[in-house]
Write a structure and sequence with these properties.
alpha/beta; 8-stranded mixed beta sheet; 6-stranded parallel beta sheet; 21 strands; 41% helix
């Protein structure tokens, strides 16, 4: 009995010593502090955290690697200690998309572990990550002793499901960026410093790691991420060991190049090999002449080195504070968009992205060209009033109008510039009559996309793009705020000029007369004309789609346009004034929504 008690005491002492040694090791490595900060263990004491660390397996997952779910990983819960995981889910056609991200401090695999179901998602390390694996047996032992963990985990799962349902893009916003130069002339360090200055000017804490920090430990990088809002890793040259390290640490990759160059090389190869998407940052000098640059997978940013505002715009796009403007179509009623843009700018709102449908797309393109308010108004007046583009009639085999004057005017104002080369990110909508889908154009000649976007079927011929017939974008999506929302770059302002601009007529004999009676009816006035009917048919849009789109915007303004119809092209000044007045009065009365205030 004495011997038994002595052995028990010795065993207890060894257990305490072993636990203390584990605790010292965990605390020394910083693992304890990291795990202690997990929301999952907010209600647990220190012993519970140490017990979890003792039960778990600590391992690294290189950026771009899949988390293997075989063997020990089959039934386990994973704690993301550092880095970030992307959750890929395949649809019924086998096409994968990222539905969520798991940043440091959160867990993955808990739903399949608890439910006992097969894994429905693929987990991929977006950058170099460190994880703790807790087996099902270990998890059961831990939750048996600490049932509060299961309660907290259930709450976290519910919150995550709610966030996913609400498509909370802010939760997926990147925190670490890699800025990789593609050529020696692209001054990554200088540009990185300017970008960091713009970000700190927004009140954010920013850490920058460049080649001078190549000797820093992983712990230093981890601590920098915890202490700052953003971390920027600046590469030294394409393909170097340091640049590869930067790529592995980044949630989002940004490749830096010059407008006069078409450099690709090893940086592109490394990004492609890692399966990483990237954004292209194009530096424009005085020449401002673009070479045949590759298409970016996540976006392209044109930075004019002599325009300080361009760097600040990129900073807002990176942090979800960029203001996106969406303008609806509506024939002559669309002139109101011009006044609305002027009022928004006067209210201090800096527009960072623009998109629209039909005539709204044309005016939004002027915004994306960085034209002033006066220049937009002057060019639109010249196009729609002086040039009279809707009078080049032809034999109506395809449409009433040839569309040549529309194309000529668009080329005169926008030239041959591509959408991807515009100062501001831009898209315009068309309706693909071949596939039956709404299409958002983000590349290709601006004039061609705009011509297709205003080609109302029957009035103007459709535009052939890659073998598909494209017509007015307002047919399928006249207020594409939902398209802008997919960018997840910040708050959205939508100007909806659609209103209730319907056409009506009391005489039920309309259309039943012979040609002479129809001519007399037309001469008396009041009856809807063919062009008015086609215009209304082409811009009526989908009301359900319109409501969905409106719900995506942070601010929606409907300018009252009484007395201004779809074909009242000469009421330019009245429509512009109505748009300006509607926005100005709304802001004066209600102020700006919180999302726009935060973006300012």
């Amino acid at each position: 009995m004495v011997i038994t008690n002595a052995l028990a005491q010795i065993g207890t002492q060894f257990s305490r010593i072993f636990s203390a040694m584990e605790g010292d090791a965990a605390e020394t490595s910083g693992l304890y502090d990291r795990v202690r900060g997990f929301p999952l263990f907010a209600e647990c004491d220190d012993q519970c955290v140490m017990r979890l660390i003792a039960e778990a397996t600590w391992f690294a997952l290189p950026g771009g690697s899949d988390l293997d779910r075989d063997g020990e990983n089959d039934e386990a819960i994973f704690l993301v200690v550092s880095g970030r995981l992307a959750v890929h889910v395949a649809d019924d056609k086998g096409v994968e998309r990222v539905v969520a991200q798991v940043p440091a401090g959160e867990t993955a695999g808990e739903m399949s572990l608890i439910a006992g179901d097969a894994h429905s998602a693929r987990l991929v390390a977006m950058r170099d990550s460190e994880l703790l694996r807790l087996s099902k047996a270990a998890f059961t032992r831990l939750t048996t002793r600490e049932p509060r963990i299961m309660t907290t985990l259930t709450r976290l799962i519910i919150r995550r499901l709610r966030a996913t349902t609400a498509r909370a893009a802010a939760l997926m916003r990147p925190k670490t960026f890699a800025m990789i130069p593609l050529e020696p002339g692209a001054d990554a360090m200088g540009f990185g410093a300017s970008l960091a200055s713009a970000l700190t000017g927004m009140g954010l804490k920013v850490a920058v790691f460049d080649a001078r920090h190549r000797g820093e430990s992983a712990e230093a990088e981890y601590n920098a991420e915890g202490r700052n809002d953003l971390v920027i890793y600046v590469g030294d040259e394409a393909g170097s060991t340091w640049s590869q390290h930067c790529l592995r640490q980044a949630d989002r990759v940004m490749l830096l190049t010059l407008a006069e160059s078409a450099a690709q090389g090893r940086a592109f190869e490394q990004v492609a090999a890692a399966g990483r998407k990237y954004e292209l940052v194009v530096l424009h000098g005085a020449a401002n002449s673009n070479g045949p640059l590759p298409a970016a997978t996540e976006g392209r940013h044109n930075i004019r080195l002599k325009q300080n505002g361009d760097v600040a715009r990129l900073a807002r796009l990176m942090t979800g504070r960029a203001v996106g403007l969406v303008l609806a179509g509506g024939g002559a009623r669309g002139y109101a968009n011009i006044g609305a843009v002027k009022a928004l700018r006067e209210a201090g709102i800096t527009i960072d992205m623009a998109g629209g449908a039909s005539i709204g797309g044309v005016i939004a393109a002027g915004v994306a060209m960085d034209w002033s308010d006066d220049e937009i108004a002057t060019r639109m007046r010249e196009t729609f009033i002086k040039a009279k583009p809707l009078n080049d009639y032809t034999m109506p085999f395809v449409a009433l109008l040839r569309g040549g004057k529309v194309a000529r005017e668009l080329k005169r104002h926008f030239g041959e510039i591509g959408i991807e080369d515009m100062p501001l990110p831009f898209f315009c909508m068309t309706s693909d009559l071949t596939s039956g889908l709404a299409v958002a154009h983000r590349s290709g000649p601006v004039w061609r996309a705009l011509k297709a976007g205003v080609s109302i079927p029957g009035l103007l011929p459709p535009v052939v793009i890659d073998g598909h017939l494209h017509a007015d974008g307002g047919i399928m999506n006249n207020l594409p705020a939902d398209v802008m929302a997919t960018e997840a770059r910040g708050p959205i302002v939508a100007i909806d000029v659609t209103g209730e601009a319907g056409i009506s007529y009391a005489d039920e004999k309309l259309g039943d007369e012979n040609w002479w009676q129809a001519w007399r009816r037309r001469s008396r006035g009041g009856a809807p004309t063919l062009s008015a009917i086609l215009m209304r048919a082409g811009t009526v849009g989908n009301e359900i789609q319109r409501r969905i789109a409106r719900a995506q915007a942070d601010l929606v303004i409907d300018p009252p346009l009484d007395g201004i119809g779809l074909t009242h092209w000469k009421k330019f000044d009245a429509a512009v004034a109505a748009g300006y007045r509607a926005v100005s009065e709304f802001i004066e009365k209600n102020g700006l929504p919180p999302a726009l205030k935060n973006a300012a």
